[in-house]
Amino acid sequence: MTQSNIPIFSNLYEELEPTQLPDSLHCERLEQRSGFHDWKIKPHRHDQLVQLFVVLEGGGEAIIDGEAIKFVAPFVAYVPSLTVHSFHYIEDSSGFVLSVFKDEVHSSLQSVPNLVSLFNQSFSISENDNTRQIAKILDLMTRFHDEYRSNRACRLLALRSLLALILVNLSRCVPQLNEQPSETDFDNQQKVATLMEVIEANYTEHHSTEFYANAMNITLTKLRRMTQSILGISAHQLINNKIILEAKRNILYTSMTASQIADMLGFKDPAYFSRFFKKHTGESPSEYRKRASISENL
Predict the structure, then answer these.
(1) Per the confidence metrics, is the pTM higher than 0.85?
(2) What is the CATH number of domain 3-178?
(3) Would the pLDDT of 114 be above 80?
């Protein structure tokens, strides 16, 4: 049993053949694909796409990286690439699903690097969080879908402009992002985004924080101050968080044993992996899987 138990799509859900997304963008009605799959989207992830789920009518339950979220419309969920997610919608729910290559999102954020860390993580917004802002997002998504289906002049420019507006309005639902960061913060936020990519490529090797500082061509002190300033955690904790996240994903979405997961994550001793997992979660891998299974069946 391998990590292939969690399907990874390079394109859209359940589409195995390469999908040509027009200019890195794709927008469809939520009910189009979900209705076809009996309103159940099974756990999966995308290696290149980020997705925005906008529910206009209905509701359901989402599980995003192990977190269960019950929702009613209006509701918005942002899911970055490689994030495991599933949805079980109420029948006849409606809305939109926007799928964008991650490079397109990064390009839209080039002039606002303080948003990069936000859009590297999943989040959701309900009407209770910000009624006015979510109404703007719903309107922008309706306009995006209309433009996407059209053959108007300057269509691509319009779509990219609407994408930028959607990202801006999503960010405005996060109060701390309304503050203007300093030039130093801008630089640190860009470096943190790069650091997270380096961790993504190397976390199973269990390198020291010094390795990551060298990879970033900065001092170890700079690395520590940077992650503490931007993320509020140490670089060491950031690396451990990534390992725990991948462990949780495989415990929840595969039938792999703790020993197999330990091996996949680069642990030579399965017992040490179990202790490591319990130290960071308060539960052993088996306890975590059992609790998740009980919760799923409630």
Answers:
(1) no
(2) 2.60.120.280
(3) no
